[in-house]
């Protein structure tokens, strides 16, 4: 049975229906998970609240929500969560939920699952708040186009900020609530001593988040010799303060003073002349107790910087469910960025022409709209089976969209489809299924290759190709795992008629390097670029007149000493991890060099052709990249077949 609590819709600004269907929005805190459905830009409804303790994980809570609102298909979802988000795996600090973003996306069948820190999402909502959705506390006035600070005491103490950048805002991901608490008076010294009995490190979150009010009350009660009921919670202390209990009022004032100091710290740290905004439910429940508290006085109490802070306004956010507004904005921006690929145009064209298709082709269209990953991943026989059509019908459908065939359609769909290419490294965990770790390995590899394409210095590539094409002799050096790459390079390059050899043994490298001279080239492959023995060998060769092309990470000793460095940076979780991705990138780099040398040796004026190819790779959008890579690979295959 659902434990969701339905709430009224929040409509910001009416707009046309989302072409890709309704979007699921979530605001997940340490206590409750709130879900909503955005059917059009700014139109947010079906808001329901689910206690986190009632569900084993976020996927189950989402499934219950979709079941409750009777929605069978959502393509895009975004979650604001009270937790740092760094990579694929999320383990909540103030709750026992732990999950993989990618595994959750697959389990729920979403095309996109965006997970961001909740205060990053709340920060993105700030520029759109109206005067009716905020209340100013104290003086000061906002300076336009200036940094905005955000904090919010709830189950934890969230912190974020907004930095203006041209016509948009950049939200800061922060865990500032875990900064060390610094008492400002004797009463707070007492609170600190009490807190240290519980924890070795006392952060501001311990004393200025919701549970901190209870901690302060307990500390003051111990001072006064007053017993505290075991079942008393922060909400009960707030009510006691509203009822006029002296100890509760003192605890609230202490709490608000500490929060004022912390807010002032955020203001001077960020230079938040655009104001400090306070979210979370704790302050709203305090009501007038907060506005009459020492908060603003302590906010400005920064000695020589008191005048600076007196001009910075502070606001309480009164908007209902503001995190939905922010996470919606972040999701919309990401989808808009992806729309510059080809997928959104493909989806729109399918919808526009669907009614004009034959019934059989319409079934393929519906499969593409509702399950695009089936089109991308499955062979034609499975696509035809799932759509209940013949294989020629699948091809006719693709051509009716202006594509050359199924492969072309898959490319256009995959390169622009939101969420298909991860932007961060997904860590493999013990207990992952083959589906989980298989997808992570593939996604990480694809992501790394795309990052290489984005950041590779093609001028250095051209120079390396010139050096290799004119070499008298080429030797490939690689230690450990890199020796595999060196052997592969030797296998490719000896076919060009250039004397080549690969050495994976340090002594053989040293002996051979001492015999090299002008016109000889060493291609050194190294993930770390720091092995002192390899560096000494290369130094000897360069003193003899040899040239060194390095395939390594940026800003390493090897990259700095080489004649030409081809930098292949990527993400690795541990230095001890088997360097699977680095090896793939190094092999790709060898292939690029081999294609370049093959073209220059087989085609007159090939240098200009390679320059044109490199320009195509630089300028290629997602739709064109496949064609450029096909052009390169087919060209190389025709010149130097395996």
Automatic annotation (TrEMBL):
E.C. number(s) listed in UniProt: 2.7.1.2
Catalytic activity: D-glucose + ATP = D-glucose 6-phosphate + ADP + H(+)
Residue intervals passing through the bilayer: 262-287, 308-331
GO CC terms in record: cytosol
Assigned keywords, A-Z: ATP-binding, Cytoplasm, DNA-binding, Glycolysis, Kinase, Membrane, Multifunctional enzyme, Nucleotide-binding, Transcription, Transcription regulation, Transferase, Transmembrane, Transmembrane helix
HTH rpiR-type domain location: 344-420
PROSITE patterns: HTH_LACI_1 (PS00356), HTH_RPIR (PS51071), SIS (PS51464)
Gene3D superfamilies: 3.30.420.40, 3.40.367.20, Glucose-6-phosphate isomerase like protein, domain 1, Winged helix-like DNA-binding domain superfamily/Winged helix DNA-binding domain
One GO term (biological process): glycolytic process
One Pfam family linked to the record: SIS
GO MF annotations, alphabetized: ATP binding; D-glucose binding; DNA binding; DNA-binding transcription factor activity; glucokinase activity
Keyword Nucleotide-binding: yes
Positions that bind ATP: 26-31
InterPro entries associated with the record: ATPase_NBD, Bacterial_glucokinase, Glucokinase, Homeodomain-like_sf, HTH_RpiR, RpiR-like_SIS, SIS_dom, SIS_dom_sf
Cellular localisation: Cytoplasm
Family designation: In the N-terminal section; belongs to the bacterial glucokinase family. Belongs to the bacterial glucokinase family.
PANTHER family linked to this entry: GLUCOKINASE
HAMAP family attached to this UniProt entry: Glucokinase
Name of the featured protein: Glucokinase
The encoding gene: glk
């Amino acid at each position: 049975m659902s434990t969701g609590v339905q709430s009224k819709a929040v409509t910001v600004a009416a707009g046309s229906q989302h072409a890709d269907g309704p979007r699921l929005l979530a605001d997940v805190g340490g206590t409750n998970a709130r879900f909503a459905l955005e059917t059009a830009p700014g139109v947010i409804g079906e808001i329901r609240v689910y206690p986190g303790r009632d569900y084993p994980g976020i996927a189950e809570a989402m499934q219950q929500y979709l079941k409750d609102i009777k929605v069978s298909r959502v393509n895009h979802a975004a979650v604001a969560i009270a937790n740092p988000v760094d990579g694929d795996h999320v383990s909540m600090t103030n709750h026992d939920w732990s999950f993989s973003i990618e595994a959750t996306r697959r389990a729920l069948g979403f095309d996109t699952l965006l997970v961001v820190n909740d205060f990053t999402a709340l920060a993105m909502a700030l520029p759109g708040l109206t005067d009716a959705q905020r209340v100013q506390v104290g003086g000061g006035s906002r300076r336009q186009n200036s940094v905005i600070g955000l904090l919010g005491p709830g189950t934890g103490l969230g912190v974020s900020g907004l930095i203006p950048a041209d016509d948009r805002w950049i939200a800061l991901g922060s865990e500032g609530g875990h900064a060390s608490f610094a008492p400002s008076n004797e009463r707070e010294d007492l609170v600190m001593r009490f807190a240290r009995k519980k924890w070795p490190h006392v952060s501001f979150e311990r004393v200025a988040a919701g549970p901190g009010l209870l901690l302060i009350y307990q500390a003051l009660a111990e001072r006064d010799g007053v017993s505290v009921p075991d079942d008393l919670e922060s909400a009960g202390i707030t009510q006691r303060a509203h009822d006029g209990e002296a100890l509760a009022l003192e605890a609230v004032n202490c709490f608000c003073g500490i929060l004022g100091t912390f807010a002032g710290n955020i203001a001077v740290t960020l230079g938040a002349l655009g104001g400090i905004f306070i979210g979370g439910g704790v302050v709203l429940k305090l009501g007038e107790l907060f506005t009459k508290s020492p908060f603003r006085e302590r906010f400005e109490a920064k000695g020589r910087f008191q005048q600076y802070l007196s001009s910075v306004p502070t606001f309480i956010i009164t908007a209902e469910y503001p995190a939905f507004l922010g996470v919606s904005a972040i999701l919309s921006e990401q989808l808009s960025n992806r729309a510059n690929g080809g997928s959104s145009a493909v989806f729109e064209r399918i919808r526009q022409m669907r009614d004009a298709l034959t019934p059989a082709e319409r079934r393929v269209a519906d499969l593409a709209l509702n399950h695009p990953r089936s089109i991308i991943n499955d062979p034609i026989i499975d696509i035809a089976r799932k759509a209940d059509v013949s294989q020629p019908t699948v091809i006719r459908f693709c051509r009716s969209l202006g594509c050359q065939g199924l492969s072309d359609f898959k490319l256009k769909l995959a390169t622009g489809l939101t969420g298909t290419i991860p932007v961060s490294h997904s860590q493999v965990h013990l207990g992952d299924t083959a589906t989980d770790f298989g997808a992570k390995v593939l996604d990480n590899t694809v992501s790394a290759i795309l990052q290489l394409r984005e950041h590779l210095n093609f001028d250095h590539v051209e120079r390396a190709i010139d050096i290799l094409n004119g070499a008298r002799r080429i030797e490939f050096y690689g230690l450990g795992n890199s020796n595999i790459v060196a052997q592969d390079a030797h296998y490719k390059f000896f076919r060009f008629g250039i004397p080549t050899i690969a050495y994976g043994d340090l002594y053989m490298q040293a002996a051979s390097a001492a015999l090299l001279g002008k016109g000889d080239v060493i291609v050194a492959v190294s993930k770390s670029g720091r092995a002192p023995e390899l560096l000494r060998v290369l130094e000897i060769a360069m003193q003899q007149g040899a040239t060194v092309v390095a395939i390594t990470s940026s800003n390493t000793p090897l990259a700095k000493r080489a004649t030409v460095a081809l930098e292949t940076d990527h993400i690795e979780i541990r230095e001890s991890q088997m360097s699977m991705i680095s090896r793939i990138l190094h092999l790709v780099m060898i292939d690029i060099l081999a294609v370049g040398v093959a073209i220059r040796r087989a085609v007159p004026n090939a240098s200009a052709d390679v320059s044109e190819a490199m320009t195509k790779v630089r300028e290629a959008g997602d739709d064109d990249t496949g064609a450029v890579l096909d052009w390169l690979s087919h060209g190389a295959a025709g010149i130097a077949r395996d």
